[in-house]
Fold:
Amino acid sequence: MTHRPHLMVWPALAVILLDQATKWAVTRWIRPHETVPVVKGFFNLVHVRNRGIAFGLMNDPGGTLQSYLLLGASLLAICILLWWFKRLGEGGGIMALCLSLILGGAVGNLVDRFRLGEVIDFADVHLGSYHWPAFNVADSAITVGTLGLALSLFIKGKGDDRS
Structure:
């Protein structure tokens, strides 16, 4: 590696630890399907289980085959992220951070899948009749990392278009 590996390790580790700590707290203090209002009309803490992917997509309670496919897809994604990180050059600091956030989120949810066969979600955001599916720290890290990576690639691509 031509860059500092801590750009990949520390943010990913922080996401994994925060994700697992918050999920532990939720399972300890909030009963399944219970709602705890935090900011009335906007944000609740909940305790729900998700056998699907981020934000409740593909959540099929009886999908054993789906669980194995998601485990495999998660492991493949982790391998791709590590490969991509290894290929980054010296100037890839922002991209490394984004890849690290995605990696930490993927590992955080993978821990749940291995341990429980499903993922614990607890953040419930809503505004009026608009309601976002429950999510967790890992989902948030994956989303922020993916958006940052897309923006970074877009900006990098714009810089290469000089005429």
In short: The two ends are 32 Å apart (CA to CA). The chain has four helices and four strands.
